[in-house]
Amino acid sequence: MTMLPPSRPGWPREKVASKLFDGGVRVTVALLGVRGYYRDTMGKPGVNDRGIYDDAIFLNSPSGCMAFNANVDPSIFRPGVATLAPGLHIYKKGKHGISRPGGGYPAFRPATPDEGLPVIRDGQAGMSRGIAINIHRGARNSTSSLGCQTLHPDQWDAFRSLAYSEMDRHGQKTIPYLLINV
Predict the structure, then answer these.
(1) Has residue 1 been placed in a domain?
(2) Nearest-angstrom CA–CA distance, 70 and 137
């Protein structure tokens, strides 16, 4: 079973905005992913665990800054499994699980033409290209990630709804996602 912290992440808006600005984000609505946010308070101290919601994603917009419990790592260690590289990545509205019956559900997909993003793969040296490293809903018994960025299912609907509405309100077709290591 995946663990969820007792509370949501708590960085002040000014810190989130500063990290986004320092990372090159200059648009109104943006996401900040923080790998290892709960590194020393969940799982093994000093280690960035997999398979638990020990990371954070912040949604920053003129309406405010909201924090969400997330997992920005794969759920498992296995040769070839992708971990999204830290840095600035651009996403768009899309669907996750499009190959499933019903065509998937609203989520975020990479905005690159081939949906490729830089990743580090378990058991391989250097960077490679990962395809469809989405931002989507995780599960209760798993973080549901083979490289994707996932949010706890209890927080997913609020996150997705707010991000979509803020993008619409401010005329953004894409949303920058800055991933940093704590």
Answers:
(1) no
(2) 9
Phi and psi at residue 151, to the nearest 5°? -115, 150
- Domain count within the chain: 1
Please report, for the chain, how many H helices and E strands are present, in that order.
2, 11
Run of H or E including 34? strand 30-35
Nearest to 144 by CA among 179, 176, 110, 107: 107
pLDDT reported for residue 43: 85
Decide if 5 is inside a domain.
Answer: no
Other CB atoms closer than 10 Å to residue 121's CB: what's the count? Answer: 18
CA distance 143 to 80: 18
Sign of CA dihedral 90, 93, 98, 100: positive
* Residue 3 scores a pLDDT above 80: no
18 domain residue, yes or no: yes
> In angstroms, rounded to a whole number, what is the distance separating the alpha carbons of residues 51 and 28?
32
58-87 pLDDT, tens digit each: 999 999 999 999 999 999 999 999 999 999
Cα–Cα distance, 101 to 69 (Å, whole number): 28
Angle at 132 between CA 21 and CA 152, to 5 degrees: 70
